[in-house]
Each structure stands twice: as C-alpha cells, then as structure tokens.
Amino acid sequence: MFSVFSHEYYMKEALKEAEKAASLDEIPVGAVVVCNQQIIARAHNWTEHLIDVTAHAEILAISAASKYLGNKYLQQCRLYVTLEPCVMCTGALAWTQLGELIIGASDSKRGYRRLAPQALHPKTKVSTGILAEECATIITNFFRKKRL
After folding, report:
1. How far apart are CA 128 and CA 84, in angstroms?
2. For residue 27, what are the contacts with CB-CB under 8 A and spacing of at least 6?
3. Annotated catalytic residue within 17, 58, 84, 100
4. Is 19 an active-site residue?
5. Per-residue model confidence as pLDDT tens digits over 132-142
6. pTM here?
C-alpha cells in the first residue's frame, strides 16, 4: 500500500483518471492536481466527447484547480500526469506558474522535453518516471486495440 503523501499514491489516482478516459474511448491520459497534500482537481482527456483538441487532461485539471482555489496561479500545487505533457499543455502550465510537475510515462514523439524543453516556468520542479511502466502500458494497450 502506498503512503497517502507519496508520488506513487497520487500517480495511481491519475491512472484511475486515465482508465476512465480509456473506458470512454478517449486517449488514456489522466491528471490530478494536489495542493497541501489534498487532491483539488481530477481530469482525463475529453477531446473526442467535447470535439475539442484542447480538452487534454492537464488543461482540464488546471482549470478545475484554478476554479477551486479562486486563483489562476498554482505555485503551491503539484500536477501528476500519466503522460508527459505536449507543448500546448506545457505552455498553460507555465502560465499557471505550477510548483511541481510529476510525469509518469515519457512521450518521445510529442512530449515537451523533446519539442520545447524550456517551455515550463523556470521555477517549476519536474520529476519523471513515477509508475512509468504502468502509465506507458495503458497508452500502449489503448493504441494496440485501435490497430486490431
């Protein structure tokens, strides 16, 4: 069992969101925002259902967190996301001045670290590889089923 305050615990919560996305035939990416050890926002990809290419898990999560806090800045918050954010999401995270970004699986094709490694706010701390195998597996399995 994971400690309530561990990166693994919160990434497991993000994975639950990714599983919800997969069950809705959305690309299975999940995100949670944590502030003061409390999850204040949860989201998963919703691009197909909303017919909106910007409805990524990260964007929806930061919008919900900002609304919850009544503030557009998330300096005291951590975002756990199952897949490395794209450049669009990273730009939004930079504007929020996110305190910490915790990434599950890397995205070697569309991830910000390959395409725009300086895109995050300079004070945002980044941790990678948290439950990376589990996070990569849900994406891999989703696309494998699509190809059948």
Report:
1. 8
2. 21, 45, 47, 139, 142
3. 58
4. no
5. 999 999 999 99
6. 0.95
